[in-house]
Amino acid sequence: MNDIPIRVLIVDDHTVLRKGLASLLSTPRFNIDVVGEAADGHEAVEKTRHLQPDVILLDLVMPRMGGLEAIREIKAESPEVRILVLTSFSEEEDIVAALRAGAEGYLIKDCSPDELIHAIRGVHLGHFSLPADMARKIMSLDLEMDQQVQKLQLTRRELEVLQCMAQGFSNQEIAKQLSISTNTVRSHVRNVLRKLDVSNRTQAALYAIESGLVETPD
After folding, report:
1. pTM over 0.70
2. Does the pLDDT of residue 215 top 90, yes or no?
3. CATH of span 149-211
4. Are 85 and 77 in contact (CB under 8 A)?
């Protein structure tokens, strides 16, 4: 296990919730360092610049600047920062919008501590974190696609890489799964993103699930 703590920024306009999360995550056995808190999207963008967290826990509904706009600004400036949406509602369209904006995962606030810690660790490792029930709901949405599936022209290997991406595998895990080099995986990932006309792995995973290119992860 990596001994370096995961640096987490908590973003929510409810002070009691922020303090409670900070207290929970600071439990030594979780190996998480809460580096800061923010009460709205503006603060989140500013503190991300200065604190450079590994993972941001982010609410969607906040004053001044909401979560969606904050995600876009943070990802534009710091694409390596992982964002886990932690909110109190589960409107599919809003969650999809957050994931398309660049968030790597989503949880509702009544999740268990174990679910939260698992999700934080998952997105920190580059995995896509989404509850199975929400994945099924997203599959049922009639979302617009920029390209028809039959025009994508993915190779067999690219489809295999996309399947792994949709399951939340890192490049190293894909390389091990498919018995290819990490450099080859990177090349396939670039091709997949280009052919799907998306900008990141989360968007590619969503596209693949929504369009039926891959099965929904369990």
Report:
1. no
2. no
3. 1.10.10.10
4. no
